[in-house]
UniProtKB/TrEMBL annotation:
Organism: Pseudoalteromonas arctica
Keywords assigned by UniProt, alphabetized: Membrane, Transmembrane, Transmembrane helix
Stretches assigned to the Cytochrome c assembly protein domain: 42-264
Record protein name field: Cytochrome c biogenesis protein CcsA
GO BP terms: cytochrome complex assembly
Gene Ontology cellular-component annotations: plasma membrane
């Protein structure tokens, strides 16, 4: 009952925050930062309590794909919300809040599985998991910045005056933050993969090879775009599309097989 209540509270306030930001998306003064912070803070706190009560149970630690997804989503929401306090993120906020609302609601209907009865703390494993989570969150945020860049650039090329007088951030600021996040995320992903090869056995074992291969493909894509931008000045729509494609491959690597095993196959 507690988990259901926390889920409802989190999703409700995420929806309220999304609605408020969207209602003033193209307003010159933008959404009220104070109201946005209040609504999002309640949602974030409820989301955090939901995670604690979902993961740590009397019979073990539930590290199912649902809870891992909720944790990843929570980190992204907190990061984007924090960034929005200093830099305009009017387009990013409704995306992350809306997705968080959908994910928290969906968590009620997707089956959970207790995967571990106890957690053996190994420094190598903790390092790999932490770097992987950070890398994924940063690269997804970079992808969101890429989508924001593409949207603003497209509206400016159409000479849409609404975008000029809106509260949306300047295009050059978005682009600079995009490539800063992309560089940081690619570095973290590099370290995550290296830590996996150093500390873990069986990265190319049958049950993990698809994840390893997809992660390496995503790394090559991110690294190519990063180096291309730094050395050759790559930018614009093709780069944004490449970042989105790389983020999709990385998402498949992190969550694809677990979703099939824990959600789809569990129904048969």
């Amino acid at each position: 009952m507690l988990i259901i209540s926390l889920t409802i509270i989190a999703s409700l306030f995420y929806i309220l925050a999304t609605s408020h930001v969207l209602s003033r998306l193209f307003h010159q003064q933008g959404p009220s930062q104070k109201l946005t912070v209040i609504l999002s803070t309640v949602a974030i706190l409820a989301h955090m309590l939901l995670l604690v009560n979902s993961v740590f149970r009397a019979d073990g630690q539930d590290l199912s794909i649902v809870n891992v997804s909720l944790l990843t989503c929570w980190v992204i929401v907190v990061s984007v919300t924090t960034v929005s306090l200093k830099f305009p993120a009017t387009l990013l906020l409704p995306v992350v809040y809306g997705f968080a609302a959908l994910l928290t609601i969906a968590s009620l209907f997707i089956p959970h599985h207790i995967l571990l009865q106890s957690i053996d703390v190994e420094i190598g494993l903790v390092t790999h998991i932490s770097l992987s989570l950070l890398a994924y969150c940063v690269l997804i945020i970079a992808t969101l910045y890429g989508v924001q860049f593409y949207f603003i650039d497209k509206r400016l090329k159409r000479k849409d005056l609404a975008i000029v007088y809106s509260h949306l951030p300047p295009l050059m600021v978005v682009e600079r933050q995009l490539y800063q996040l992309l560089t940081l995320g690619t570095l973290l992903l590099t370290l995550a993969l290296l830590s996996g090869f150093i500390f873990l056995d069986g990265m190319f074992a049958k049950e993990f090879i698809h994840k390893t291969v997809l992660s390496l493909i995503a790394w090559v894509m991110f690294a190519t775009v990063t180096v291309g931008h730094l050395k050759q000045g790559w930018r614009g729509k093709p780069v944004v599309l490449a970042i989105m494609a790389a983020a999709f491959v990385l998402t498949l690597a992190y969550f694809g097989s677990r979703f099939v095993q824990e959600v789809i196959l569990s129904k048969f």
